[in-house]
Amino acid sequence: MASAARSASRAFLRSSSVRPAVRSSRFALPAQAFRASSRRGYASEAGEAKSSNTFLWAGLALGAGAGAYFYLNGGESINSKNFVPSKADYQKVYDEVARRLGEETDYDDGSYGPVLVRLAWHASGTYDKETGTGGSNGATMRFAPESDHGANAGLKHARDWLEPIHAMYPWITYADLWTLAGAAAVQELGGPAIPWRPGREDKDVAACTPDGRLPDAAKDQRHIRDVFYRMGFNDQEIVALLGAHALGRAHPDRSGFDGPWQFSPTSFNNEFFRLLVEEKWQNKKWNGPGQFTDKSTQTLMMLPTDIALTKDKEFKKHVDRYAKDNDVFFKEFSDVYVKLLELGVPFTVKPEDRYVFKASE
Ligand code: HEM
User: Fold this and answer.
1) Which class in CATH covers the domain with range 221-334?
2) 122 an active-site residue?
3) CATH 1.10.420.10 in the chain, residue ranges
4) Ligand 1 site residues, Cβ closer than 6 angstroms
5) 20: cis peptide before it, omega within 30°?
6) Model-level pTM?
7) Which residue pairs, CB below 8 angstroms and at least 24 apart, start in 14-22?
8) What is the pLDDT of residues 203-256, one digit of tens each?
9) Which of 122, 157, 166, 318 is catalytic?
10) Rounded (5°) CA angle 312-314-315
11) Which ranges carry the Plant heme peroxidase family profile domain (predicted)?
């Protein structure tokens, strides 16, 4: 969507143009109230929609064998049972995510992209390499209790936003859709290419992971390592992943924390690291959970876990590398985000056959 430039300028305008001397009125305000998203259901209701399709197309399906049903996809009728999506079909899903990201700018700082990135991460970050449980396979956040885990507060905005796309392309699993959208959001917000491959299935409620697998932002580097080593990441990969905090903001009504990490929170870049290194971060004085604010403008924020990256020698080494070199950050972020989005998935598509989606113009 030529989105890098568009969203950067939009966010830049919203952030009062001049940095860091001018205080951003947008950032100083509490998070906007969001449009009430219409209640859309997940598995069970999607199932109902499919079964009404089944009736609708029953006549046709009869001729095609038991259990098969048809639906319309871009005007073509497709037998979902035998339909094997190609790269071009996944590109159509990508294009729809990109189109809506470009059009629906009336949310937060002007984009649903950041919350899509977070959905993909929270769907994947439950992985436990010892037991092989959790990970992006399953999309179990469709169900309580996982959808109600404190760490997942606010991700309903992303899940609901993706429902119409799932309705348009019902052959894609939620697990594939959520991760594809997370990859698309990074690309459309000006980040690196995120190669992606299909193969995730949707599991039922029994596969929900226990609460407590995702990191707690109030903690320190020991906790960060515990959580990310459990998924199989090393120190360099952990730091690269945290660079996603260039995007979006914390919301008092979700995590309790408040504010964006950088001045253009809809642009994917290495600003998180540059600001972490170059700004002075002080304790925010407020009636909320402990977080940090930049001394210059007091409009930005860092979580205790973000600051922990500067307190630890091994982590800091990589913070400095990424602060200095956006290209290095892009390359290493892409590699590790691909790894994150693939945790726990028994792919049949080989790594070398991953798709690189064409970003919008
Ligand atoms: C130590 C690890 C991490 C902690 C403690 C953490 C914590 C948080 C918290 C508290 C928020 C604010 C949520 C809200 O109030 O809406 C947030 C937002 C966000 N996180 Fe993380 N996070 C971590 C790692 C990651 C990783 C690995 C990614 C992606 C690769 C990521 C991507 C994001 C994004 C894009 C947002 C903004 C969401 C929005 O604007 O709605 N985070 N994170």
Assistant:
1) mainly alpha
2) yes
3) 221-334
4) 114-115, 117-118, 121, 154, 215, 217, 224, 241-242, 244-245, 247-251, 254-255, 257, 303, 305, 337
5) yes
6) 0.84
7) 14/109, 14/110, 15/263, 15/264, 15/299, 19/263, 19/297, 20/263, 20/294, 20/296, 20/297, 21/296, 21/297, 22/297
8) 999 999 999 999 999 999 999 999 999 999 999 999 999 999 999 999 999 999
9) 122
10) 65
11) 155-361
Ligand 1: residue whose CA is nearest its atom 33: 118
Show Cβ contacts of residue 121 under 8 Å, excluding neighbours closer than 6 positions: 182, 241, 244, 340
Integer Cα distance of 272 and 288 in angstroms: 22
- Say yes or no to pLDDT of 201 above 80: yes
Whether domain 44-214 has CATH 3.40.50.1370: the reply is no
Residues whose CB is less than 8 angstroms from the CB of residue 303 and which lie 6 or more positions away in sequence, other chains included: 217, 218, 245, 250, 257, 291, 292
One-letter amino acid for residue 24 of the chain: S
Query: Can the peptide bond before residue 145 be classed as cis, meaning omega within 30 degrees of 0?
Result: yes
Ligand 1 site-directed mutation target among 223, 237, 245, most atoms within 8 Å of CB: 245
**Ranges for all domains in the chain classified under CATH 1.10.520.10:** 44-214
Whole-number pLDDT of residue 78: 60
Q: Which tokens hold the place of 242?
A: 């945290």
How many CB atoms sit inside 10 A of residue 114's CB?
25
Name the residue with the closest Cα to ligand 1, atom 26.
242
CA dist., res. 201 & res. 206, Å (int): 14
